[in-house]
């Protein structure tokens, strides 16, 4: 199904020398072996230089143009395939913001679930279209080049899936991310965050990231995690560094 069989492990848990950092919060969560440090991956260093210079949007575009995409798995993240098979995901309309090559978009798409993959990089969206346009479920997804913070779709979504997008954004944008997700999701829709746990970074992307960072911006908007668990299906280099969060919105409790 996937045109790209290559596996380039991102420094977001990538295939480079790891060192155990069991004193860090990321290392404690999940209890697995050592935690890989993105700052040790030269490709992450190049990405950080690109995204730091000038506008972030230009930086992402340049990273795609020059093939500096160390996060790219070359396939859907296994937990998404598992969730699709489980039949527990909302049907209707789904959104994957910051979708990159769009493997998760394609994995989620079916006649019952139309999926929009959105990325600020037009190069990314061209590449995503190239590998996926002749797949049997190609009518069930679309790729759009736009900035999630400016995009105004005509309809809301039943499901939003975020993977390595929240942690790729400058932390100053996290409240805006939550507001945007809240606006784009139907009131009874579900937000799924596959949380890449990371600490001790002096820069990003990926930026330091913990479950509490999501709670801080989502809970004031009425979101509550109905599930938060270790991702047992994380790819090997990210084992022990991922949490699956499933969030629903509940009405604000009356204090009376
Ligand atoms: C770390 S990559 C993750 C890609 C994909 N989710 C994956 O796991 O392979 C983050 C992506 O977010 C995109 N991005 C960054 N800022 C964005 C924005 N404001 N709106 C939409 N996409 C954005 C980047 O171009 C990049 O492809």
Structural class, please?
A: alpha/beta
- Tell me the domain tally: 1
CATH architecture field? 3-Layer(aba) Sandwich
The CATH class turns out to be: Alpha Beta
| Proportion of residues in helical segments | 25-40%
Report on the biggest sheet: 7 strands, mixed
Oligomer type: single chain
Main-sheet strand order equals 3-2-1-4-5-7-6
Question: Could you state the order of secondary-structure elements as H and E?
Answer: HHHHEHEHEEHEHEE
* Poorly predicted sequence stretches spanning 5 or more consecutive residues: 1-9, 14-33
Q: What is the molecular shape?
A: globular
CATH superfamily: Vaccinia Virus protein VP39
Which band does the percent of strand residues land in?
A: 15-25%
Bound molecules: S-adenosylmethionine
How many angstroms separate the termini?
54 Å
CATH topology: Rossmann fold
* Total strands: 7
Q: Averaging pLDDT over every residue, what do you get? A: 87
How many helices? The count is 8
- What is the alpha-carbon Rg in Å? 17 Å
Protein name: Methyltransferase domain-containing protein
Pfam family, one: TPMT
GO molecular function: S-adenosylmethionine-dependent methyltransferase activity
Keywords: Methyltransferase, Phosphoprotein, S-adenosyl-L-methionine, Transferase
Description:
- The chain is α/β, with parallel strands linked by helices and 256 residues long.
- It contains 8 helices and 7 strands.
- It has a single domain (39-249), classed as Vaccinia Virus protein VP39 (Rossmann fold, 3-Layer(aba) Sandwich).
- It is 27% helix and 21% strand.
- Helix 6 (122-132) links the parallel strand 2 and strand 3.
- The chain is globular and about 40 Å long.
- The N and C termini lie far apart (54 Å).
- Residues 1-9 and 14-33 have low confidence and may be disordered.
- The structure holds S-adenosylmethionine (SAM).
- S-adenosylmethionine (SAM) is lined by residues 60, 71-72, 97-100, 118-121, 124, 147-149, 163-165, 168.
- The site of S-adenosylmethionine has 19 residues, from strand 2.
């Amino acid at each position: 199904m996937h045109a790209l069989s290559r596996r380039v492990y991102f420094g977001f848990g990538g295939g480079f020398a790891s060192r155990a950092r069991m004193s860090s919060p990321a290392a404690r969560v999940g209890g697995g072996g050592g935690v890989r440090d993105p700052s040790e991956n030269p490709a992450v260093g190049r990405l950080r230089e690109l995204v730091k210079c000038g506008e972030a949007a230009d930086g992402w575009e340049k990273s795609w143009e020059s093939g500096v995409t160390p996060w790219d798995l070359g396939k859907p993240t296994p937990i998404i395939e598992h969730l699709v098979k489980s039949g527990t995901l909302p049907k209707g309309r789904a959104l994957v913001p910051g979708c990159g090559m769009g493997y998760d978009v394609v994995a989620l798409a079916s006649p019952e679930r139309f999926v929009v993959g959105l990325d600020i990089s037009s190069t990314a969206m061209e590449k995503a279209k190239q590998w996926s346009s002749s797949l049997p479920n190609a009518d069930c997804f679309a790729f759009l080049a736009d900035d999630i913070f400016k995009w105004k779709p005509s309809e809301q979504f039943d499901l939003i899936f975020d993977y390595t997008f929240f942690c790729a954004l400058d932390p100053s944008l996290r409240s805006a991310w939550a507001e945007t997700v809240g606006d784009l999701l139907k009131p009874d829709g579900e937000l799924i965050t596959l949380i890449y746990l990371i600490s001790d970074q002096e820069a990003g992307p990926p930026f330091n990231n913990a479950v509490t960072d999501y709670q801080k911006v989502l809970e004031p908007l009425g979101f509550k995690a109905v599930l938060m668990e270790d991702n047992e299906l994380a790819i090997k280099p990210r084992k022990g560094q991922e949490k699956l969060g499933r969030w629903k919105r509940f009405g604000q409790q009356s204090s009376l």
